[in-house]
Design a protein that fits this description.
Length: 78
């Protein structure tokens, strides 16, 4: 579970909070992020953020993908 708090002067969460959205994405741990991204693309998902180091998770990488229905998924390699 990831808890977010609006930072002073930041508007990033404002649209979500104003719309009453409490959860905006799901996270899944995957063993191989490239294979997971291949699966996403074959199921009409779009990579929003290419794999980057996940500082909070040590040496792992994360990526964000979105599906046509608006579902945002975070892939966490580990």
């Amino acid at each position: 579970m990831e808890l977010l708090e609006p930072m002073p002067g930041s508007e990033t969460l404002t649209p979500f909070l104003s719309a009453g959205i409490k959860m905006y994405h799901l996270g899944y741990q995957v063993k191989n992020i490239e294979l997971a991204l291949d699966w996403v693309k074959s199921n009409k998902g779009k990579v929003i953020v290419n794999p980057v180091p996940a500082i909070a998770f040590g040496c792992h990488r994360i990526s964000f993908v979105m599906f046509r229905n608006g579902l945002l998924i975070e892939l966490i390699e580990g």
